[in-house]
Automatic annotation (TrEMBL):
Domain Transglutaminase-like: 275-355
Biological source species: Hydrotalea sandarakina
Transmembrane segments: none
Protein name as catalogued: Transglutaminase superfamily protein
Domain DUF3857: 57-210
Organism superkingdom: Bacteria
InterPro entries (UniProt xref): DUF3857, Papain-like_cys_pep_sf, Transglutaminase-like
């Protein structure tokens, strides 16, 4: 059977199933409504790969909204562009009994340019619509169809739309010519049904999820790709405009990227001359790398440009040099060329940035990258140096949590090679603070604070230094502390731009009424700043693993001078905890009219089984309570 006829048959079958299905909300099983804000009644996606440059994606789905918390699920939102043409889009609203109330066509929907707030220009548009119906429960049904003109990045299946959303039935069907095989990757395969069928010319895969009960949010849960089922598909051989490639291995994928980037690394002659003026007098390889990185940062700026194939192919070096801007791909390609001109081998790297990034599958080459960066291997025999080219202020070699601790694809001369970005250890993610304070009889406290932040704890202060005005920095400090009325003055921030960056901080603070005065007693919480906020509620039904996403050490030493006529009436007991999650120590003392607090907390980045959650609750809540322990001072008798 030819694919165009198979596609019509699949649509006809889905349409008949839709007509036969009641949208009366009473037909939803009670078990799926329990603890749910919305229920997916059906969700059918049919992907028909007709050839290497034509893919039809038809999507029909119905969602019943049970209460106001589920209203976001009823909004239609679809992106499209010249390479992904939106042929059709319709919507229908039904009441609780399944009676049709209103319908909407494509031309009636809102259509506007996509604004990601970082792009100079892009050709993506958004089609969206909301019925704004608020009589619960109600159901919306949306249908759309897209023609995709490439097979480089195929759609994936996400049957679970979010927390507190149940699924009655969701189906993902992919049809393709036998001569154009696809590959796939399944997450949480045990809860998905799978079927396949063949005929002489085509093959069809079908995945289905039925009767899935909504799951609530759990603190410190793994990301969505670890929790939920997904199906990713990829064309073994693909086409992107006039470029063809193979995704049967990461190495071959890298060869395709080399072809895509070919002849885009030629620097203008004037830039070549500047490179040698910068590096020829420098004695070490690392000095040259840092100098050229700083040259790139000072003479370019990041602007995203996504037009057609430009979403994957970088603008050439001449464009960047002449216009002094580029997106992540263009700036990374330019940085590699600068280094190569200096005789330093560097590589273009594809990666998934941000916290909730796509997973990297070693056994499933795919095109789900959202960022490009640069890798310079083995600097002076030390660790590989990473260069984030979209940030004009970041020190060479530092990647922050934007791209830390994840696999990426380094594009070498011979193809793609899997590499891993830096992991910041407990010894690197350090925060230490010294506080010298004085308390008066009214309970007012004046303190001088000196702190040092290394690696990731320095990120927020790096941003303050490089992007905030002095007035905005003052505003930041005025709202940063959970304290009574206070005033911050003499703020000083100094940054050491190194592979492991450091920010030194100092400021003065006056806190009126910090200690409570009752008769002849002063009640004070001597741990002023580092107070653990993450208290957890017990959950005996916890199902997800626990993810602690950062290594860090916080160390505080606090001295508070009190009026000489006061002595200690009540002093908190020291607490020392050593657990699989980390450690915590706090001790209080009083000598020579001075309170002393020594506090240290260590957190270990790791993933732990759900059955340890009770211990974590006790650990975190003990820390939270200990951090606000109170001591009592009493005025001596005359």
């Amino acid at each position: 059977m030819e694919l165009k006829y198979l596609w019509i048959l699949l649509i006809f079958t889905t349409y008949n199933a839709l007509k036969a299905q009641s949208l009366n909300c009473n037909d939803i099983p009670d078990s799926l409504k329990e603890d749910a804000d919305a229920v997916v009644r059906f969700d059918n996606t049919v992907v028909t790969i007709q050839n290497l440059n034509k893919v039809i994606i038809r999507h029909e789905y119905a969602i019943t909204v049970l209460n106001e918390n589920g209203n976001d699920y009823a909004e239609y939102y679809k992106s499209y562009d010249p390479m992904n043409v939106l042929n059709e889009a319709t919507g229908v609203l039904y009441d609780a009994a399944g009676k049709k109330l209103r319908s909407v066509k494509k031309k009636e929907m809102t259509d506007e340019p996509y604004n990601d707030y970082i792009s100079l220009t892009n050709d993506t548009r958004i089609k969206s619509f909301n019925f704004y119906y608020r009589t619960y429960p109600y159901t919306v049904v949306y249908t759309d169809e897209i023609t995709q003109t490439n097979t480089f990045q195929l759609p994936y299946w996400k049957p679970i739309l979010g927390t507190n959303c149940s699924v009655m039935q969701s189906r993902f069907q992919v049809a393709y010519p036998n001569s154009k095989p696809i590959q796939y990757k399944i997450l949480k395969a045990s809860i998905i049904q799978f079927d396949s069928s063949d005929n002489s010319n085509t093959k069809t895969y079908t995945w289905q999820l039925s009767g899935y009960k909504s799951s609530p949010y759990e603190p410190l849960q793994p990301n969505r790709f670890e929790r939920n089922p997904y199906v990713f598909i990829g064309a073994t051989h693909f086409q992107l405009q006039n470029y063809k490639g193979s995704m049967d291995s990461w190495n071959n994928y890298g060869k395709f990227i080399n072809e895509l980037n070919s002849n885009r690394n030629q620097l203008p002659e004037v830039i070549q001359q500047q490179v040698h003026q910068i590096v020829d007098s420098l004695s070490t390889r690392q000095q040259k790398i840092i100098a050229l990185y700083q040259f790139m940062q000072k003479n370019t700026r990041y602007i995203n440009i996504t037009l057609g194939i430009g979403g994957w192919q970088p603008y050439d070096c001449a464009y960047v040099a002449n216009n002094k801007y580029g997106d992540c791909k263009a700036l990374s390609n330019y940085m590699v060329a600068l280094l190569n001109e200096a005789g330093i081998k560097a590589y273009y790297v594809l990666i998934n940035a941000t916290d909730n990034h796509f997973p990297f599958f070693h056994d499933f080459p795919n095109a789900y990258f959202n960022h490009a960066t640069v890798c310079v291997p083995n600097v002076n025999g030390a660790d590989t140096l990473w260069l984030e080219c979209t940030d004009a202020t970041m020190p060479a070699g530092y990647v922050s949590d934007f791209t830390d601790d994840r696999d990426a694809l380094m594009i070498t001369d011979t193809g793609g090679v899997i590499v891993h970005t830096p992991i910041y250890s407990i010894n690197q993610n350090q925060e230490s603070r010294m506080v010298q304070a004085t308390l008066n009889e009214k309970g007012d406290l004046i303190a001088q604070v000196h702190a040092r932040y290394e690696a990731q704890p320095s990120d927020a202060f790096h941003e303050l230094l490089n992007f905030y005005t002095p007035e905005k920095i003052q505003e930041y400090y005025n709202r940063s502390f959970s304290l009574p009325t206070y005033t911050v003055s003499h703020i000083q921030l100094k940054e050491e731009k190194k592979v492991i960056p450091v920010v030194n901080e100092s400021f003065d603070i006056q806190i009126n009424g910090y200690a409570s005065v009752t008769g002849k007693r002063l009640f004070i919480k001597p741990n002023i700043f580092d107070r653990w906020q993450q208290k957890l509620e017990p959950d005996e039904n916890r199902t997800n693993n626990i993810v602690i996403n950062k290594n860090f050490v916080q160390s505080d030493t606090i001295y508070i001078a009190v009026p000489s006529e006061y002595e200690v009436e009540s002093l908190p007991q020291p607490i020392q905890l050593n657990t699989q999650f980390g450690s915590y120590n706090i001790a209080f003392s009083f000598n020579h009219h001075t309170i002393q607090v020594i506090r240290k907390q260590v957190s270990i980045k790791q993933e732990l089984p759900a059955n340890t959650y009770g211990d974590l609750v006790n650990y975190y809540n003990t820390i939270s309570n200990a951090d606000v322990n109170q001591m009592v001072l009493v005025k001596k008798a005359n």
